[in-house]
Amino acid sequence: MRIEAADYFTAAQERLYETKLLFEKARYALAMYVAGVAVESLLRAYIVRLDPKFEVAHDLYLLLNASNLRSFATPAEGHQVFTAITVLFRRWRNNLRYIANDRLRRHLKKSKLDRGIRGDFLKENCRVAIEAAKLILKIGAAKWKTS
Questions:
Q1: Which of 15, 78, 130, 134 is a Cys-bridge partner for 38, taking CB atoms 3.0 to 4.6 Å apart?
Q2: Which domains are seen in the chain, by residue range?
């Protein structure tokens, strides 16, 4: 099945909405995974607009560069997108879909992403990842119409 730019764009919006539902059900590993997929979908939408045959792995930095999204954004927005990608990249991997919350908790602890967080650090890291995805999609959606 060939996926068009508009399909990726619509999927990005749907995946972002789904993160909220998963988060509310304490499905943090899956919510964090879906947040990354939302961003990946948005970036792929931009990429497919430029080159329908382009294919790249699930690396958010490579996708960001290939998408050319930052060239459509103001310098401040470009900086916000890069910062949000960095925040998400520290927490997101494509293989999150295969692990349970307890395994993700161990990974976050090993990555020292539990430091300075009172309460449930898995929940907080999930919230941070979703907020980063929201920011990227907000900027990406606004630029979608004008790019």
A1: 15
A2: 5-144 (1.20.120.330)
